[in-house]
Design brief:
With 174 residues, the chain is an alpha+beta fold. 36% of the residues lie in helices and 28% in strands.
């Protein structure tokens, strides 16, 4: 949406006054699993299992409106994201089913206490110290004051997508 990109530009522009190397994300998603490596012959059974486990889920809304700073596990990248403030329970239920599929293939499950979020921008290295505190407060203020942000940051979940290599699989919610 045009308004979302406008908000993204405001946030990234302000954050760059603290970390000039920040790059805006070009695609947006909310993760329900860690990145895992699927062997080629596992892809079809993995996708079938996901489809079965996710078939009973209804569509729902979540709200991602809390600005937060994240780093990846090995602290080689820092991200600015919008954390989910409503819809957490439904996302946990989805993760539980995705985790069961991962366990079938002896793959690592999701984090025990996940912070569901949509990454907006990133940079190389652990620069979280520069982005937290004053910068984070300014970014949250931009979100809170942005016209129609309450509607803009309300996301309807209509499908779950799985990416394997360059292929996407879609699982519609009821």
């Amino acid at each position: 949406q045009e308004e979302f990109l406008e908000l993204l530009e405001l946030l990234v522009s302000r954050a760059r006054t603290y970390v000039s190397s920040l790059a805006a994300m070009e695609e947006f998603h909310l993760s329900l699993s860690q990145c895992v490596v699927l062997r080629y012959h596992w892809i079809d059974p993995f996708v079938r299992s996901l489809k079965e486990r996710l078939a009973s889920f209804d569509r729902f809304f979540c709200v991602a409106d809390q600005v937060k700073v994240y780093t990846n596990q090995n602290k080689t990248r820092t991200f600015i994201g919008l954390e989910v403030s409503a819809g957490h329970f439904q996302l946990l239920e989805l993760v539980s089913e995705v985790d069961r599929v991962l366990e079938e293939f002896d793959l690592p499950t999701f984090y025990k206490d996940p912070s569901f979020h949509i990454s907006l921008a990133w940079c190389v290295g652990d620069l979280s110290g520069r982005l937290e505190g004053q910068c984070l407060r300014e970014l949250q203020d931009i979100v809170d004051r942005f016209e129609d942000s309450a509607l803009l940051l309300r996301v309807q979940w209509e499908q779950i997508r799985c990416k394997s290599g360059n292929k996407y699989f879609s699982f519609p919610l009821r």
